[in-house]
Amino acid sequence: MSAMRSMKDQRPQTFQELKQCIAERRIFFPHQMEQVARRMLEHPEMIAFESAASVAKKCAVSQTTVIRLSSFLGIGSYRGLKDLCARYIRERSKGMSPPYQVPQPPPRNVG
Asked: Per CATH, which fold does 15-94 belong to?
C-alpha cells in the first residue's frame, strides 16, 4: 500500500469533514502539499480569499502544488477548494456573537 492516499474516492463535503479526515490520518499528503494543507487548516480565509499564486508564495511551494491539492482532496479545482473554505468561514461566522457595544448611560431627566 502506498504511503500517500488521496481523497478522490471520498470527497469531503465540508471543511469539518476534511479536518476530521486529516486528524484521523485517513489521508497522507506529499510533503509540499502537507505544508499547504496545514496552513489551510490554520487559516481557511487564506484559501477562501486569495489566489493560488498568493497561497503558493506564502507556503513556499509552487502554484501547481496548491492547485494539485484540490485534486488530491477529490475536490477537483482550486475554485472548489476556495468555495469549501468560504462556506466554512460563513458558517463559523453565523455562530459568533454580535460585536460588543459600549453601554450607554441612561437618559437624564431635564426639567
From this structure: Arc Repressor Mutant, subunit A (1.10.10)
